[in-house]
Amino acid sequence: MIRDARPEDTWAADCIAGALPGTRVEQHDDGSLPGMHDLDLYRADVRFGACEVTSIADPGSLALWRGLNGRGEVWEEPGLTGCWWVHVGPDCRFNRLRAELPAFLADLEQRGIDRPGSLNTDPETPTGFTTLVVKVRGVASHLEDYPGVPAVAAQALFIADIQNDEWWLDLKLAWLEDLRLRLRPLIPFILKAKQAVLYTDFTDVIGVGTEIDLSGVVDSFEKFRRKTRHYLREHLGEAAVAKLHTNRPISLADLEALKSVLVSSGLGTTDDITRAEAEAGGFGLFARSLVGLDRAAAKAALSDFLDATRFSADQIHFIDVVVDHLVDHGLIETRRFYESPFTDISPTGPDELFGAEQVDRLLAITEDIRRNAQAA
Question: Which end of the chain is less crowded, N or C, counting CB atoms within 10 A of the terminal residue's CB?
């Protein structure tokens, strides 16, 4: 049975055919044998090359390609009244494009940017989008006051152009982006030049000093947390710390020894220890969240999961973010899978990318990692 081509295979085939005119690209891997390469390359019906497509190649571009090509020739948004032509750059990320582009275009339509031919350039009665035009032209006018600034001088012709009505007719979205990129670095010159200088003429009178208790201003527990994080990361070779950092099961004796060191060295008090245990659900979990997980240990914990099947680019990207989160925070609670940064890859969490059994296995692995930081 011939398996369906993966989206990344189709994407790679399209790229090769576009880059090598006259080349026909056909699927080779039909699933009949292990280790088959993905694509065959033909010219004049003669096979001259083969290609293996790896899923880890630029997952963001693959996601963008899937998202845009999966919508057909037209992307329809019921909230928009006009027809827009949008240029999408290669570094664009589809999840953000899908979330932000419709609202952005709707806002432009509300401001009247979809009807540039009817632009009212009268500064006395600006309305809608023309209000923004008047402001931009005002900025340009101020910039003309500083021809001695090299960055401003380099944009002198452009600054003069955007103050003419003709520039704003037949307006294109790309022009506005170009305008933003050119003017934004110049704005600080105006702000600095327009700041008023304040002169004072008074004499300070020092009154009677009063001692103020600042003990409640800085949270002592937060200081304990910062000091403990620094200590743990500076002592990764100590037995208890090493076990937490490398995902090895830790004992109650290990944790008691670590707590004793923190208290005896003046990094915290027994009250700090008690609060840490209560807030984190155990002192081992508290310490793990501060020291993080060794990257090699995180990958080792997920190795069986990764070896079980061949994953797509988006799935591998998701797992990479899981590893990064474990390295930074040491643990992952189940609810975190349904929050950013995971929802930046898959808006509905892992359920959209993985099968039910795979999700259960992933959650079981993260629970095992959590359990190793709790004393048996």
Answer: N
